[in-house]
Structures are given as C-alpha cells and as structure tokens.
Amino acid sequence: MGVTPAGKGNGGGWLLVFLAAALLGACGGTDRASETRLSLAETLAGADTAGYERALAPRDFDFPADHGPHPGFRTEWWYVTGNLTSTSGRDFGFQLTIFRSALAPRIPDSRSAWATNQAYMAHFTVTDVSAERFHAYERFARGAVELAGATADPSRVWLEGWTIEGTTSEPFPLRLRAREGDVALDLALEAGKPAVPQGDRGLSQKGPGPGNASYYYSHTRMPAAGTLVVGGDTLAVSGLAWLDREWSTSALSEGQVGWDWFAIQLDDGWDLMAYRLRSADGSTDAWSDAVVVDPLGVPTRLAWGTQIIMESTGTWTSPIDDAVYPSGWRVTVPGHGWSLAVEPRIPDQELDLAFRYWEGAVFVRGTGEGGAPVEGRGYVELTGYAGEAPER
User: Nearest-5° angle of CA 76, CA 96, CA 232?
Assistant: First the structure.
C-alpha cells in the first residue's frame, strides 16, 4: 500500500505496464521484479478512468457481497495487519495484503482460459521483534486459471497459496494463510467489532474532485490465534488484527505525494484510524481524516489539526538510498484526553519490493480515554518517502 513519490505521467498506466510485464514474465509465479519501482500515489491518482466505476457518493455496505471483489473499479485491496505474542512471550507483527488491479474495464474477447482483465499482487511480512528481523515477500499472478482471484460467497481472496478466506458460508471467522520459504503464518480471526464505514458512510474522499475517493471500511479489532513459523521455530501465537477493505478508480489528487496511516488498538478497548495525506511541499493535505472507535464499536470522526494532532518525534534513514522516514510520533486527541507516544517495534520495517514503503508494527504508551494510563499496539504505513530504485 505505498511507495515512491508521485511524479510525471499517468500512475495507473505505470501500474498496468508493470503488472503486465511481471505477469507475462512470471506466468503467475512469484516474481520480486525489484528493478522496476512503482508509485502507489501515482497509481491512485491516475487519469485513466474511462469505462471504470468510480466512488462518487456515500453508500450502505452490503455484506457478504462487499467482502468480495468489485471488478468494475480499477484498484482494490484486502489488507490485514496485526500484533501477535507467542506462548513463550515473543512478540511479532505481520501484514498480509492482496491487491487487485484491473488491466482494462472489460474482460478480453477470448476463449482462452488465461483471458482476464484482472491482475493480482500480494505482500506478506513478519516482524520478529526479539530477533530484530523483518521478513518481506511479494507475489504476482493473473486473475485466471485459479492462480489468483476473489469471491464474495464464499468469502475468499487468494494469490496462489496466500489466502484470506471465510471458514464457513460467513466471512468470519476469517482464516489467513501464507508461506514463503521458512516463514509461514496460519491464523483464525474473529470479527471483534462491527465493520466501521470510513469517511462519509463509506465514501472516503481524498481530494476535491468527483471520484477523488474510495469506498473504505475497516474491522478495527479482530482477536487472532494460530501458528507462526519463523527462524526454524513453530510457535503458537495470539493477539489482535486489523482488516481494511478499500476500492477505487482514482482516489488521490494531483500534488498528493503520499500518506502516513495509523491503526492503533489500545488495551482499554478503544481504536484509532488516522491518515495524513501529504502535499508535495510536505504540508498536511486538507483531506486527511481520522476516526476513533469505542469499545462497543461506535465510531466518531475527528477533524485533523484540532480534534487530532500528530507530531513526528524522530526519523529513520533507509540504508538503501538514504530516504528519511518519520520514526516515532506523539498523537493527541484533546476531546478524549489522549496523549500517546507511538514507537516502532524495530526501526527497519521497510519493504523493498515493487512498491517501496515503510509498514510496521508499533508500540503505544500514554494516556487514553479520560486521561487514564494506557498501552497498546498498532501498525503504521508510510508512503512517498523513498526515492527511485537504486542501480542493480
């Protein structure tokens, strides 16, 4: 979900060209394709909208249908992150995200089983806190011949053996499975709280123009349990996960170069989603947004800069190209008494993949609801800070 700064040209076109090349080369197999670097900010701002559906008005989500794909929109993702602890007390973070991208508005007129207008990409990461190791992997596949795809009933999205699927006719409990080499994850997730429609009844406006928006909902607190394989050990783990579902055709506006996104789960049962859209001059874009969710699942939107204030407290420099990311934050929600210090579990959680971005587990400590002491965990995503791909 993030990457290099937006630059010239049609971002959607860059994504389509990249995926087409990757899929033709890999024929559905894994392919790191690290010599090509993409910008998700460009992708989400692409001007090529003809023939695609667009997010134009608020809507009521329809479940289980909206757990499934929306192929009329150009871009979509199923995004799960979480923090886990083993029975022996070792802490881990994880991400499993599956992206769908429409290569054209309509399916090609062909009888071939390989014919499709849908391409898929997935990212799988594990943060091993005690070992200070970050594992990151990606895969690509065509949305054909069962290599990758998505369905609503049963609820399932997959790319080869990486899957996010309902275990019954209902989407929950949700099962996550991914394996790459000697790193593997197998988790069952419960809903925890109801789905939270983000923005205005699910319409997450990210710019002033019609269609500069996505449809977006979250499950902000999902009890998780299962097994994790890492470092030669098979561990029983449990913790909390977060699910984001988002689809759009051209969400971002010209001049928006990236975002800082936060998912925070406090031990008192409160959750926070916040994203700061960044303009080319480094300022906070007016379309940034945030919401707090109480222990019963009731959301309240916050106005950026007054009802929520976020300040960076440090930086981390990538060893790849000296890109400087914020690292550490002070988050204040005055109306609720919150003053939270947010710190990465380990500094280097940068994905050096087709998209290059920082996405990692964080620890939270400070004052929560009513000013009471609180701790928590979460995930932060930082896009648009990394430069172009180094020479290889």
Answer: 160
Contact between 386 and 323 under an 8 Å Cβ cutoff? The reply is yes
Peptide bond before residue 173 is cis, with ω within 30 degrees of 0: yes
In 3D space, the residue among 213, 183, 185, 193 whose CA is nearest the CA of residue 201 turns out to be 213
Name the residue among 252, 222, 260 with its Cα closest to residue 80: 222
- Residue type, position 258, single letter: G
Q: What is the chain's Cα-based Rg?
A: 20
Which helix (H) or strand (E) segment holds residue 13: the answer is: helix 11-26
In sequence order, what are the beta bridge partners of 243? 80, 219
**Encoded tokens for 337:** 């008494």
Q: Are 296 and 329 in contact (CB under 8 A)?
A: no
253 is written with which tokens?
A: 């506006």
pLDDT, tens digit (0-9, with 9 covering 90-100), for 160-211: 999 999 977 677 899 999 999 999 999 999 999 999 999 999 999 998 888 8
Q: Estimate the share of the chain in helix, then strand, then coil, as percent rounded to the nearest 5.
A: 10, 50, 45
Domains by residue range for the chain, with CATH = 11-382 (2.40.370.10)
pTM of the model: 0.89
Q: Token pair for residue 208? A: 């002033």
In angstroms, the CA 76 to CA 68 distance is 10
First-to-last C-alpha distance (Å) of the chain: 24
C-alpha angle with apex 309: 304 to 315, nearest 5 degrees? 115
Extract the tokens encoding 157. Answer: 């999205």
How many helices (H) does the chain have, and how many strands (E)? Answer: 2, 25
